[in-house]
Amino acid sequence: MPGAEAARVPRHIAIVMDGNGRWAKARRRPRSFGHNAGRKAVRVVIEGCLREGVQALTLFAFSSENWQRPQDEVGALMSLFLRALDKEVDELHQHGVRLRFIGDLDAFDEPLRQRMQAAMTHTAGNRALQVNIAVSYGGRWDIVQASRRAAAAVASGELALGQIDEARLGQWMCLAELPPLDLFIRTGGECRISNFLLWQAAYAELYFTETLWPDFDQACLRHAIEDYARRERRFGRTGEQVAATS
Ligand code: IPE
Ligand code: IPE
Ligand code: MG
């Protein structure tokens, strides 16, 4: 049954790419060495999602809270993002990847913002896979920016207060145009969300692995997808109700 098989592949995967610092520390190298090593895992996961037919992949690269890290680490991450943008975008484009950046992009300096915008424009017509990179992103920030838009719509008279409901507010959240988040993966062993996609993860299946991000490979992705395929998603209904409709 191809239909049932397709339903087992998550349409939208999000990953908290955690553990780079510990990976580097285990090798007695600076944390930036770990961040750099994490680039390979990003490539591997994008290839895997293309192969599996996943429609959207959202990667947590830098949180709104990560600005609090030591200045040299933040600086190293910014230059890594710049290098990655310069090196990887063409290849992603050739693979039909549409690239999006989500988060408070105004927090970045002009050269980085321009590169991000150029990458989004360059790949805007691609359809094989949408890859969203969350930078200076926080789930609470996302809810606030959507609420501001709602407040502005009410203030201008475009909408009545009573028209603001979950569906309407949801339209203003990041990634609203994509399939709902099916699978939320976190590497590095911590079992927390760390202010990632708070709204969007409401009914995502959570998957935590001890594997540190630079070690995450095809087999790890396959394992996560297989685990997802075995879950029963009930969305508030009973198991019997789910069985009756599937
Ligand atoms: C995740 O790895 C990458 C970023 C937050 C930018 P960490 O840097 O948090 O690695 P650990 O958790 O310290 O090992
Ligand atoms: C979450 O990892 C952010 C990213 C992976 C980009 P952190 O390492 O910042 O999370 P906490 O601080 O351990 O919760
Ligand atoms: Mg961490």
Verbal overview:
47% of the residues lie in helices and 15% in strands. The chain is built from 9 helices and 6 strands. It has a single domain (6-136, 177-230), classed as Decaprenyl diphosphate synthase-like (Undecaprenyl pyrophosphate synthetase, 3-Layer(aba) Sandwich). A 6-stranded parallel sheet has the order 3-4-2-1-5-6, with helices on both faces. It has helices spanning 2-7, 20-26, 31-52, 71-94, 110-122, 139-155, 166-172, 218-229, 239-245; strands at residues 12-16, 56-63, 97-102, 129-137, 183-186, 205-208. The two termini are 12 Å apart. Residues 18, 188 line the site of magnesium ion (MG).
Concise description?
The protein has 246 residues and is an alpha/beta fold. The protein has 9 helices and 6 strands. The chain is globular, with a radius of gyration of 19 Å.
Question: Top keywords for this entry?
Answer:
binds 3-methylbut-3-enyl trihydrogen diphosphate, 15% strand, Undecaprenyl pyrophosphate synthetase, binds magnesium ion, 246 residues, alpha/beta, single chain
Radius of gyration: 19 Å
CATH fold-level topology: Undecaprenyl pyrophosphate synthetase
Q: What is the CA-CA span between the terminal residues? A: 12 Å
CATH homologous superfamily grouping = Decaprenyl diphosphate synthase-like
| Hetero ligands | 3-methylbut-3-enyl trihydrogen diphosphate, magnesium ion
The helical percent reads 40-55%
The amount of beta strand, in percent, is 5-15%
**What is the averaged pLDDT score?**
96
Compute the number of structural domains.
Answer: 1
